[in-house]
Design a protein that fits this description.
The protein is of the alpha/beta class and 401 residues long. The protein contains 13 helices and 15 strands. A six-stranded parallel beta sheet has the order 12-11-10-13-14-15, with helices on one face. The structure holds nicotinamide-adenine-dinucleotide (NAD).
Length: 401
């Protein structure tokens, strides 16, 4: 693990005691970090996790990566507040605090800095340093890792920027300096809003293309042959995870709050992407109807409950919304996901293995996540009908989104 090579003494402070126990026992619960890597870090004696706030005492650098969810549709900064108040007690002259959580522009300067100053009695930018550097981890991506993905860095003043940049240059191959924390905060929201909006574009296109009887997937592939000015995005059952369904709303909330206007692109993209699970179910109803069958009482097998391929992250996954709709129609729903834990799947939904018998006994199979672990041949050989929302299967009885 790279952190072992760099040689910092690292404390992983997390309020979740269960997580800290697992970390200290070298049991990784993060897809991209193996238990072996964790073990080698623990064995150095220079890394340990703790759920005690006092474990932060004496820190030189603190990186804050706490959740930033939406609560009742609004940015919820309570985790950032709690972490800042804990850190404030231990800020010493010369210390550096960097926020990495995704949040709206202004959070670092207007929200975090006052709490750190109040709790420490020190002046930010003079006595200690503060910056913002967005996380760019792409779970499951084996090519672009923490080390080789350029890291955007910022500080509340030039002295802070210098400290932030110097720290991250020990960890990553390249840093990208921006002039202030607002720009760095906006950078992250721009990246995620860009994906969110483009996915919404192809999702809406997929809905209309199906009505027009045009193969949208082929059109996207053909457009991607253009070597400039086009970047392919693909339709799917909706967006999930902790970023796309949430982050753009942080931006639109801030715009409405500060400028009093609606960020229409974000609103529209939210609307389209949120309706994709309904559309998947509607397509399934149409398919069964063509065969004179009802969804009520039909057994439906869902392949993939994670929001993203080859990960076990089921947070905000559109597959849960698909399952919920199907259950509300009276379908008998089962699901397969080799990466997702039973405890992360909604109640009322049975997780099963994708055996030939399980596939054959379903009236319809819906492929929602394109995990490499799925045996596609077994699916196409045994399924009676498949709605493939990821365009990875082939066969007469396979339909695409
Ligand atoms: N995971 C990613 O791939 C990713 C990528 C880009 C950005 N982000 C952003 O990073 C942030 C964290 O995301 P995540 O997926 O790692 O969340 P997570 O929920 O998996 O982990 C956050 C951890 O913070 C802990 N925590 C909560 N309050 C705390 C406190 N006061 N002090 C110490 N620990 C506390 C939680 O117990 C949890 O273990 C979010 O803002 C997210 O948008 C995550």
């Amino acid at each position: 693990m790279r952190s072992v090579v760099v040689g910092y003494d690292v404390v992983g402070y997390d309020t979740d005691e269960l997580r800290t126990k697992k970390l200290n026992a070298a049991e990784s619960f993060i897809d991209d970090v193996t238990s072996e890597d964790l073990q080698s870090a623990v064995e150095t004696g220079r890394y340990h996790a703790s759920s005690q706030g006092r474990s932060c005492a004496g820190f030189d650098v603190a990186i804050v990566t706490v959740p930033t969810p939406l609560t009742e549709g609004r940015p919820d900064l309570s985790f950032i507040e709690a972490a800042s108040r804990t850190l404030a007690r231990y800020v010493r002259p010369g210390a550096l605090v960097v926020l990495e959580s995704t949040t709206y522009p202004g959070t670092t300067e207007e929200f975090v800095v006052p709490m750190l100053e109040e709790g420490s009695g020190l002046i930010a930018g003079e006595d200690f340093f503060v910056g913002y550097s967005p996380e760019r981890i792409d779970p499951g991506n084996r090519v672009w890792t923490l080390t080789n993905t350029p890291k955007v860095v910022s500080g509340i003043n030039p002295a802070s920027l210098e400290q932030v940049d110097r720290f991250y240059r020990t960890l990553v191959d390249r840093t990208v300096r921006v002039s202030g924390t607002h720009e760095a905060e906006l950078t992250k929201l721009l990246e995620n809003t860009f994906r969110h909006v483009n996915i919404a574009l192809v999702n809406e296109l997929a809905v209309f293309a199906a009505e027009l009887d045009i193969d949208v997937w082929e059109a996207i592939d053909a457009a991607a042959s253009k070597p400039f000015g086009f970047m392919p995005f693909h339709p799917g059952p909706g967006v999930g995870g902790h970023c796309l369904p949430i982050d753009p709303s942080y931006l639109s909330w801030r715009v409405r709050r500060r400028v009093g206007k609606s960020f229409r692109f974000v609103e529209l993209a939210n609307d389209i992407n949120e309706h994709m699970p309904d559309y998947v179910v509607r397509r399934l109803i149409d398919a069964l109807n063509r065969d004179g069958k009802a969804l009520r009482g039909a057994r439906v097998l869902l392949l993939g409950m994670a929001y993203k391929r080859n990960t076990g992250d089921a947070r905000e996954a559109p597959s849960a919304a698909v399952a919920k709709h199907l259950l509300s129609y009276g379908a008998e729903v089962r699901a397969v996901d080799p990466h997702v834990l039973d405890s992360d799947v909604m109640s009322g939904l049975a997780l099963v293995d994708a055996t030939p018998e399980e596939i054959a006994s379903a009236e319809a199979v819906v492929l929602l996540t394109d995990h490499d672990a799925f045996d596609l041949d077994v699916v196409t050989t045994h399924a009676r009908y498949v709605l493939d929302t990821r365009h990875i299967l082939e066969g007469d009885h396979v339909e695409y989104l």
